[in-house]
Each structure stands twice: as C-alpha cells, then as structure tokens.
C-alpha cells in the first residue's frame, strides 16, 4: 500500500530556478527518504531525515520534515538540466521488526535549459 | 566500492523460458532486495533477504524464485512468466539486517525484462 503522496505529480522549470516537491504521509514514521531516478535507471538515495529532525541539507538539496502535518518537502536550488528525473519519497514506519520502504507515487521534474 | 551491479541489462524471454537475473554488491551490506517497477510507477517490493535468509516475501507469484547464495549475491529465477511481468527489475542493498532497520538503500541499474 502507498503511504506517501507527492505533489506535484509533474513539474517543469527553467534552469537556475528552484524546484520544490512535497510528500505527505498518513502514519507515524521512523524516517523519510528521498530518491532520484533518471529515466529507466536505478534509484539514487538523496537524503534520509529522521522523525526527530526538522531539516537537512546536502549540497543544493534541502529537505524539511513536519511530523505534526505529516509532510516533507524537497527543495532543489539553482536547478540544472541534469536534475531532470523522477523524485520519490519513501517512508519507514515505526511499527514492525523488518522495516521496509513505503513509496510515494513520485514527482517528475523537467529542467529546461 | 559503493556499487550494486545487475546483469543482464536487458532480457527478452518467452513465456516458456527459464532465465535468471543476477545482482551483486561488495559493500558488506546484510540486507538485499528485489523490486519490480512499471513505467511511471514507484518500485514495488518483491523480496527481502537478511543475512542470506528470506525475511520478506510480498506474496509474489511462485514463477519468481529468489535465491541468495552468499552475502554478496542475489538471484531471481524466472519461469513461465506472463507478458504483464514485463518491467524493470531492481536490486538494492542496505547495511543492516536482523532486524532490517529502514536505512538507506543502494540500487543497481536494473534489468529491463520483456516477456513475449
């Protein structure tokens, strides 16, 4: 079952602009992760943010987590054509011994040169 | 070495064929995963191995048979597949197992499978 819902489903911006993607979820989480997937290829892990963290940065990426609203956002600053990809959020629930990733439906980002 | 490798990159098979997908990692990760991904959809978990033992089977049809010969290798044996099984099959690994803690996963490039 899908826990995360992402919006927008698709986003088209110009190179140099910032891109923001949002992810909402329904139940208490252990952590939330963001992945990037270039067309038809494997996924690349971007950032993991734990439930007791509010913000993390990695290069041009900034992730926020609001557990009261059960939502997260991924901001890509100064976008480049190479950032064109699908971006997925994935949550890890607090329940259970073997914790698997529950995937959102993804946001397709197109960065136009 | 932070890479997960998968072979073959592409595979076309008939519904009566038997084939295998292979995955390898040398990062010392204790958990390994098989996912199936259809176009424009998120990955769907199929199997999880932890310390070379099957920990999670997401009710996958028996025509898919996983195998973990050692801590670095993961196979997916395919037999009598259906056209709807055509998809990108992704292998991933993560550091901890027993229990699988939900840490970040490292993905291979995938095998694009077409069943005719």
Written description of the protein model:
The complex is a heterodimer of chains A (113) and B (116). Chain A has 113 residues and is mainly beta. Chain A has no helices and 11 strands. Chain A has strands at residues 5-7, 10-14, 19-24, 29-37, 43-50, 55-58, 61-66, 71-76, 85-93, 101-103, 107-112. In chain A, strands 2, 4, 5, 9, 10 and 11 form a 6-stranded mixed sheet that branches. In chain A, strands 1-3-8-7-6 form a 5-stranded antiparallel sheet, with no helix packed on it. In chain B, a hairpin with a 6-residue loop joins β4 (31-37) and β5 (44-50). In chain B, the strands form 2 sheets. In chain B, strands 2, 4, 5, 6, 9, 10 and 11 form a 7-stranded mixed sheet that branches. By secondary structure, chain B is mainly beta. Chain B has strands at 4-7, 10-13, 18-25, 31-37, 44-50, 53-57, 64-70, 73-79, 87-94, 106-107, 111-115. Chains A and B meet through β4, β5 and β9 of A and β5, β9 and β10 of B.
Short overview:
The complex is a heterodimer of chains A (113) and B (116). With 113 residues, chain A is mainly beta.
Key terms:
heterodimer, A: 113 residues, mainly beta, 6-stranded mixed beta sheet, 5-stranded antiparallel beta sheet, 58% strand, B: 116 residues, 7-stranded mixed beta sheet, 4-stranded antiparallel beta sheet, 11 strands
Average pLDDT figure of chain B: 93
First-residue to last-residue Cα separation of chain B: 36 Å
> Largest chain-chain contact?
A-B, 26 and 27 residues
What is the averaged pLDDT score of chain A?
Answer: 91
Low-confidence stretches of chain A at least 5 residues in length (pLDDT < 50)? none
Overall, the morphology of chain B is globular
Helical segment count of chain B: 0
Name the helix and strand elements of chain B from N-terminus to C-terminus, one letter apiece.
EEEEEEEEEEE
* Whole-angstrom Rg of chain A: 14 Å
Total number of helices of chain A:
0
- Uncertain segments of chain B: none
Strand content of chain B: over 45%
Helix content of chain B: under 10%
Tell me the strand percentage band of chain A: over 45%
The number of distinct β-strands of chain B equals: 11
The span between the termini of chain A is 37 Å
Q: What is the strand tally of chain A?
A: 11
- Summarize the biggest pleated sheet of chain B: 7 strands, mixed
Helix content of chain A: under 10%
SS class of chain B: mainly beta
Order of helices and strands of chain A: EEEEEEEEEEE
């Amino acid at each position: 079952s899908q826990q995360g819902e992402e919006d927008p489903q698709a986003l088209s911006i110009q190179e140099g602009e910032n891109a923001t993607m949002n992810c909402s979820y329904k139940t208490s989480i252990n952590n939330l992760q963001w992945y990037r997937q270039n067309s038809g290829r494997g996924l690349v892990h971007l950032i993991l943010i734990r439930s007791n963290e509010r913000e993390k940065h990695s290069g041009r990426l900034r992730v926020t987590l609001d557990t009261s609203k059960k939502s997260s956002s991924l901001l890509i600053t100064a976008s480049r054509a190479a950032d064109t990809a699908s971006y997925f959020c994935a949550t890890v629930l607090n329940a259970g011994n073997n914790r698997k990733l529950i995937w959102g439906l993804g946001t397709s980002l197109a960065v136009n040169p | 070495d932070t890479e997960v490798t998968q072979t073959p990159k592409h595979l076309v098979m008939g519904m009566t064929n038997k084939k295998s997908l292979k995955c390898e990692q040398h990062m010392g990760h204790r958990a390994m995963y098989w996912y199936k991904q259809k176009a424009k959809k998120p990955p769907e978990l199929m199997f999880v191995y932890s310390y070379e033992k099957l920990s999670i089977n997401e009710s996958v049809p028996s025509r898919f048979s996983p195998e973990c010969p050692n801590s670095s290798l993961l196979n997916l044996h395919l037999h009598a597949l259906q056209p709807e099984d055509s998809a990108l099959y992704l292998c991933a690994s993560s550091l901890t197992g027993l229990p699988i803690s939900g840490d970040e996963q490292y993905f291979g490039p995938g095998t694009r499978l077409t069943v005719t």
